[in-house]
Specification:
Length: about 260
């Protein structure tokens, strides 16, 4: 298990407490020779623009460049949005558009889950923050969608959907009235990350809950999903520990 925390401001540190889900100490396993990760840093500041990006650059396995391209395209899109906002702010002279990013990853053998954490401000009462996850296998070069982790694809994913809805119904007032319909409209193809022996399904800001509720996380231990995870996924996850984020899990994006 390895971890990276690169230049992440308090504004972009997610709450990953997740109902008892706390990071445990990393076990010191060295990074495999088939997996490399380095920083690319972008900093820019003008009168109306503040950009501070820590971007992961992958290497050492065949699909690394594909993932790097996906990340670069996502960053470019987010940057253009903020640059356009900064241009509009030049007229009033009082606001500063911003874009920031950092990242974390969890590695269990050849199974790697990398999540890019981003926040921006383009005007209005507050900024936005979000997670972009990438989960892949450095040996087989698979880039996983949610159903790819499961023995029976959609049929198995439907069991996870039932559990998510059950957890939501324990505290329905925390969510939008349409939450169940929204979850079902994903057709079991969820955003997710893997942190050690946890598979974490999550929903971005405003998807199923108000802004004050933040990103909504639904963690599942590998052991809970043993019967539906593909054997190679379960074996990679089962004895792994979640990365230790040195207490920063108690910070929250919406402090800004």
């Amino acid at each position: 298990m390895n971890r990276v925390i690169r230049g992440i401001s308090a504004a972009i540190l997610p709450v990953l407490i997740l109902s008892g889900f706390l990071g445990c100490a990393a076990n010191g396993q060295p990074v495999s020779s088939s997996f490399g990760i380095e920083d690319k840093r972008i900093e820019e500041r003008t009168d109306h623009l503040d950009i501070d990006l820590q971007i992961p650059v992958l290497s050492g396995f065949d699909v690394a460049e594909t993932i790097n391209t996906m990340i670069d395209e996502s960053i470019s899109k987010a940057r253009k949005e903020i640059e356009d906002a900064a241009s509009l702010m030049e007229d009033d002279g009082s606001q500063l558009a911003g874009l920031h990013s950092g990242y974390l990853y969890s590695k269990s053998g050849e199974l790697v889950s990398l999540w890019l954490m981003m926040d921006n401000y383009s005007g209005g009462a507050h900024g936005l923050y979000w997670i972009e996850p990438y989960t892949f296998n450095t040996n087989t070069n698979e880039i996983y969608r949610f159903g790819d982790l499961l023995r029976d694809g959609n049929a198995s994913a439907a069991l996870v959907t039932d559990q998510i809805i059950s957890k939501i119904q324990e505290n329905p007032d925390l969510y939008f009235p349409s939450v169940v319909e929204t979850v079902e409209q994903y057709h079991n193809d969820y955003s997710f990350l893997i942190n050690g022996n946890y598979l974490v399904v999550f929903f971005q800001l405003y998807e199923i809950a108000p802004y004050a509720g933040g990103i909504q996380f639904f963690p599942f231990k590998a052991e809970e999903l043993k019967d539906i995870l593909k054997p190679e996924i379960y074996e990679a996850m089962k004895d792994s520990e979640p990365i230790d984020m040195d207490g920063t899990i108690l910070e929250y994006w919406n402090q800004n």
